[in-house]
Amino acid sequence: MKLYLYGIINSSDQIKEPIYGLKGSNVYNIPFCDIGAVISEIENPIQDVTEGAVLEHEAVVEKLMANFAVLPARFQTIIDGRDSLLSMMQSYYRDFKGNLERFHNKCEFGIKVIWPADKVKANILKVLKKDEQKILESDNSSSKRFIKKKFEGYKIDKEFEAKADKFIKVMDIFFSRFAAEKKLEKLKTKNLLLDAVYLVEKDRENDFREAFGHIKSGPLGLKYLFSGPWPPYNFVVLSKKSDLLRDSEQADLFDKVTRCQALAGVDSI
Amino acid sequence: MIMNSVVETDSAEEFIEEIEKAQNALPKKIDANPKTVEKGLAKLVLTLIELIRKLLEKQAMRRVEAGSLSDEEIERVGETLMKLENKMNELKQIFGLKDEELNLNLGPLGDLM
User: Fold this and answer.
1) Are B19 and A229 inside 8 Å of each other by CB?
2) Given pLDDT bands bounded at 50, 70 and 90, which one contains residue A220?
3) Chain centroid to CA A234
4) A136: which residues sit within 8 A by CB, 6+ positions away?
5) Which of A237, B77, B78, B93 lies 20 to 30 Å (CA to CA) from residue A203?
6) HEC profile for B11-77?
7) Is the pTM value of this prediction over 0.90?
8) Taking CB atoms and an 8 Å cutoff, what residues of chain A touch B15?
9) pLDDT at B10 (0 to 100)
């Protein structure tokens, strides 16, 4: 029997209300020390990725999020069996624990912003034409004309980036006030000005939404996509155990893990 | 199904289009099979050359902007870059490659093109 993993939670206790996962399977917590892996049993690997299955996975993670700090597992994370799961928990215990502490009482929001790139570029070109830098005294040779054309493109791109930075800075000032952590990606495509995720404390959720409302109704004239609250998919940081631990610490962890492992996996819910 | 999460936008289709573009900017797998191995290798090599060419071009533009090139130097740099670009276009044509295929994810710097 394989185990389908929904996420790691900051509790080794039973999940009180019943949760049903993929194909109506019973979801339960396998404790490991003071954390737990939330799983359901699965006989065969999922053949088809359907929207329904993805939503079932997401619904479980969101239900967990209501009561616990959660490290959401990627859709279709399947583990060979209980031994493999416990071995994984042992290897990553410190990482999991650190992330769960960071995520305590927090959730993720996503913000995407589209701007009219072609219009922005056209405006830049208009301004550049007005005060064109006289780089070439005469442009009668093909190589100078080539450089002139390239230089124009270079100036447009540079100004385009600078404008993007400026817009993003304005928006980020609003959102950052209510966020514990953030990840911003600029110009993933020329139109997708910003693709950002913010980690927000649950009691600042409303402030964050309000900040978005202000930006949306503001004078920037951009298009927005706001989403959340999500489990903190984009903020999980894992590092290899060997990089994290010195020998002495490994010994400590091993002792702790061995004690915990003896208790783990017996009282699944 | 999903409890509290919301997705709010007035421009869903535009966002879907842009997200798809961002995801498709790079091939998910390298297509390496006996029939396409030559093209695959050419693509890899040309991508690297294109990266170097773009860096050279950018450096030249910075120097032009700073005004640190004389008229003769601009002439020379222009000729070199132009020839390099023409040669790249020839090679792309020979191997049937388009500009958007010569892309490279430069990690935190973003994509090459």
Assistant:
1) no
2) confident
3) 1
4) A144, A147, A148, B71, B74
5) A237
6) CHHHHHHHHHHHHHCCCCCCCCCCCCHHHHHHHHHHHHHHHHHHHHHHHHHHHHHHCCCCHHHHHHH
7) no
8) 112, 114, 223, 225
9) 87
Of A18, A108, A113, the C-alpha closest to A65 is: A108
Q: In whole angstroms, what is the distance from residue A58 CA to residue A40 CA? A: 14
Minimal CA–CA distance to A164: which of A197, A100, A208, A117?
A: A117
The region, left, alpha or beta by phi > 0 then psi within -120 to 50, assigned to residue A22 is beta
Q: How far apart are CA A39 and CA A86, in angstroms?
A: 12
| Distance from C-alpha of A176 to C-alpha of A219, rounded to nearest angstrom | 19
| A66's tokens | 């209501």
Are B25 and A155 an interchain contact pair (Cβ–Cβ within 8 Å)? no
Is residue A66 less than 8 Å (CB to CB) from chain B? yes
Identify which of B3, B58, B71 has the shortest CB distance to residue A63: B3
Output phi, psi for B36, to 5 deg. -115, 10
Give me the residue from B6, B14, B78 closest to A223, CB to CB.
Answer: B14
